[in-house]
Write a structure and sequence with these properties.
single chain; alpha/beta; 2 domains; two-stranded antiparallel sheet; 56% helix; globular; disordered N terminus
Amino acid sequence: MEVNKHPNKFHNALPAWIKKPDSGRTAVFFALCVLLAVRLAAFGTIPGGLNQDGAMAAVDAKALAEYGTDRFGTFMPAHLRAWGYGQMSALLSYLMVPFVKIFGLSRTAVRLPLLIASVLGSIAVYGTVKKVSDERCGLAALLILAANPWHFMQSRWALDCNLFPHMFVLGLFFLISSLKRDCSGRNWKLYLSMVFFALCMYCYGVAFYMVPFFLLISCALLLLQKQVKGKEILICLFVYFGISWPIYGTMLINFMKWETVSLPFVTMEFFEESVRSADILFFSENIGEQLLVNAKSLLNVVFLQKEDLLWNSIRAFGPMYRGTLPFVVLGAALTVRGAVKEKDKSKKTGCQILLVFWICSLFTGLVINYVNINRINIIFYIHIIFAAAGVSFIVKKWKMAAYVLLAVFSFQSGMFFHAYFTDWAGEIERAFYGDFLDALEYAKDYDCGQYIITPDTQYEGAWNVTEILTLFAFEVDAEYYQGADGPGREGELPYREKFLYSNPPEGGALPKAVYVFKSPDMDKFAGGDFNLTFFGDYSVAVPVTEPESSP
């Protein structure tokens, strides 16, 4: 007589992978847990301080959350103004809106969109590699991502362009997934990929040189192989431009120097000042000479992994650990072989699309002047994919290599995380204006008629960075910043009078105000009329007698 070991009907209804979990799924789940755990460690405190671009995105997010405008009063802008001209991509600020509503202007709110995007990008890479190769290779990619220096560091501070690679690989995943249609023959994954490729255009100006190039080649490839129909291409174009046309319109308006176009749901703004055209090869005075400079920069930053900006990498480790290059080269060779000899049609096409991704990334690195890690961030995902393919191949040929590579990788990762949370944490806090923000937070608690704040946070007299950090720390209302009066502001000085960005004057009695100043200027407050509080590079002076609010 046979005994039913699982009489529970609910248990019998469960999927097989839940009733009998396999080691592969367990390993993937473990890798994701490690990836998320290390990114959440001291998430709100390291890096200390706040980068000016992150502060700017957050201030605009607050304005969007409260008024549907940026801090200057532009309604639903397709592109944002940084320092008064078009330089800031908008998607990061829009993604910050719900977090700013929940957490206010905090470092956690500022960083959460990048953290979430990074995790989703990692899952997309795993899924992409699994479809093009196998689960072992996908797991290798996920493990590499978990402790990859570039991926880890960019996920913990807010910069608009850092969204670009994550949006792109999400689009890439759905594009490659569309190569195998569902049983109904529908190709919804193909159309969904266009959504993410269109969102790339709101992440970084470089996407204009990368994404259309990639889509054009991929489209031609799929048409030649008869994997898509003309009707599907038309739908893709409709989806892509249906989402991205406002940013294309903004670029056209600025190229042609047309007036701002305001629609009921979006504003395409004309920026009178420069839009950083000098950063692009095609606008250089000597294109040939600049191309050689760009090629050298690309080689140094991406392949040789030489020293870059402090917030992008730690000198001893580079963006991908220095021993990774042989695996990248091997993986690239294996991908080329797959693109030529793979018998599975969808995998073969997937390999070809990955190569298109790589070529377009290299092209992007060549057309950007003075490449650094965040400017060429689009290339690191494909190099991680190549590295995973190389590692997987070696492990398949020699199983003991898995233990050797895991040991070496764990040792490198341990050293990296130790450096990140100790020495580097101290360096970056200063670079991200930690002392200055601490001083602002302290000064904020003293409600007074006027604040006099040093402009010398970034460079001597460069008050723009000082102002954006002040707007963040004080959570200045956007309409008040624009000069509007209203209920609750009776007796309050206008913003331009309440916040003065200047150093304490030399000699004579100082006006009764709260001062945030560079600590070497402390001797200017020697008269005893102010209580002084020291915050490293900056100090705060509060009048002994609280200043009365100005009429």
